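User: ok so my PI wants both of these folded by tonight, can you help

Assistant: No problem, let's get them done. Here's the first:
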Amino acid sequence: MSVGVESTLRGPNAYDLARKVLEDMERRHIWPTALNYELWTHYVANPDGALAQEIERLLSIGEAITEGVSEQLAAAYLPKARLNEQIRDAGDQLTRELTAVAAAIKQAQRSSEQYGATLTSAGKSLDEDVGPEDIRRLVDTLTTATKRVQRENRSLAKRLDESTAEVSRLREHLEQVRRDATTDALTNLANRKAFDDELARACAEAVEKREPLALAVIDIDHFKRFNDTWGHQTGDQVIRYVSSVIGRMAPPPRFAARYGGEEFAMIFPSERAAEVVRTLEEIREEVSSRALKRRSTNEDLGTITVSAGVAELKHGEKVDVLIERADQALYASKRNGRNQVTTDSGVAAAA
């Protein structure tokens, strides 16, 4: 979903929006399939958007919202559907390229076989008692066959060069598609799916190499109240600001992601929790040091603070347990007054 709609679905008006969506679908006799519900959520939440305008156009001319129409709307206006369409198109194009290359190679093989047969025939003819005229004809035949094979080989080489370039272009395109699929649209940090995959991989590597790994979870303090007061667009501005600070503190092999809503996560391979606390304190201090202003009106929004929790991977520990411990450390920061960093070991010591 778009960033604005996603923010609404995670905010205080989410259930009101859901009720409006279902009521409107029922009133218009739109079947409440998962795809139709997603389309209608955009339609109701963003009535000025391109998707809503297209739905309005279809409804105004009496067009029935069939399954086929819904799929066409999704392919044209929903990012996830467009992404799947791009992957399918790239796959189809790659298949066509490989088919064309296979045909060119097969043709070259046939030409080589014919050339071999010609050479064999010529060899047999030379074994016989032949005159000058026969030798001339034989040389002409071999010359013609050689030129034909050379042409075929040049054509094959050109086709292979073209296919190599095309496959390289498709590879780059698919890599961009992959990046889009794993990037959060609002913050340009990794999204939740990319985080889950990376955390599982990083934990497995840490266990294999017997190296430490720390996980931090960061949350914007009082974000719901801020969002309700200033609106979702300004809330998105705050999320982008915090994510920019976090992103600067996460050069590889560190890994930063938007975990969900106003929450972020950071993976610290080969680092102990005590080392990570210093980085999180830098993030916390930088975020709170800046007085924010509303872009549209230049109103003073005050300062934003963040709370964080960090846990270090234990030997033989499952990934979900590590996440739970980092969450508990975050909740401890919230309970103890916010705008602070708490380690999982600190929570255990307090208990």
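One down. Here's the second:
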Amino acid sequence: MPTLKRLGALSLSLVLALTAFTGCGTKGDNSSSSGSTSQAETMDLSSVTDPFLATAGLSGDTVVATAGDAKITADNLLYWLAATVDGTAQYYSMMGMSVSDLPWDEKMEDGSTMAESFLNNALQTAALYALVPVIAQQEGLSISDEANETFQKAMDTFSQQAGSQEMMDHVLWSSALTQDLYTRMYQAGDLNTQLMNRYYGDGAPDAPKDEDILAYVSDELQIAYKAKHILLKTVDTNKPIKDEDGKATGKYEPLDDATVAQKKATAEDILAQLQAADDKEALFDELMKEYSEDTDSSGNVNSPDGYEAKSGQMVAAFEEAALALQPGQISGIVESTYGYHIILRLPIQAADYREKYVSYLMSQRQQSWLEQFPVETNDEFKKIDPAAFYTQLTALRTAVQAEVDAMQAENSGDSSSSSSGSSSGSSSGSSSAS
């Protein structure tokens, strides 16, 4: 269940808020509408004291569900509902569509509507955030002083950047957060980490063994091998070849013969250097950084630590050559549809995957909690309309963004005036001196 992984990424909450504050957050033109829900106007922030009451009609501390002894409050649920819809909205935006295109009432594979699916997914994550403190207390765990200190420093910095407590509150609102909710979420994250260390940390009864980690890498991650390469392209990957229907064929326009010959000579020289080197892996990294054309838009080498490849993931020539090597071995020159490769097979070491495996084990345990303490909703839960909530949240975000823009414009104006005054004073001083 993907939502379970969110417990390991609590810092995203503050990142979202800070992003909104810097003017890069959700703008008002991303409003949504569905059925009878009309697009909301910009909200009057002076009338808002509880962002959840203003957007969903429920105060943040309203209990909407339970999971065993854990109470799930509206603020917790609505934060995750907003995050869930935001993720889909971002995908729609990438596809050139707006949030208003969301088919809230469309049936999903399990028979629920999209709106119900959003709400149910959010409910499962909210349940975990409610359960963790209860389970941690049963284990005799409490918030660490270090976590409290780190959190307070972050909030102090945020408050200074915002310029006032009120502005900080408003920016948090735009991410469906309040200071109280964010504090509880952060604390749940710290307790979750403590629980994970108690269950799976060094010396714990269930601390993972290397053979279990390697089995996980093979069976769950399905990683067949790990390798890095130096690529010298013999094609122009910016010019894909298309078929008569305009669809990409997976091939690219070849470079001219002279360039290809030069690339082959360079590859041979690189290979000769590697074969003569005492520390082949160290030199490989140097030459990869210098020559490899498998780079990102900034010119940096892609996956400098190597590719973790599943069977069939890479082009056949690359995979066959990589699998023929032993860890630590370097291939000859391998030609694929992309060009000339020199491949270094890397070992798959348990230590490199321990953290990922522990997260996997923790997610399995978290799933067992949800099965042990099934979520039970109440009548307050039934009042939540995801489409209407998101429309109102967009209106609130629009208002906050306008407030942030106005503050930034004012600060920019003050800065310009100060600069102008300083310049004027300097000029005046120069005239007087002359």
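The mean pLDDT is 86. The two ends are 76 Å apart (CA to CA). Good luck tonight!
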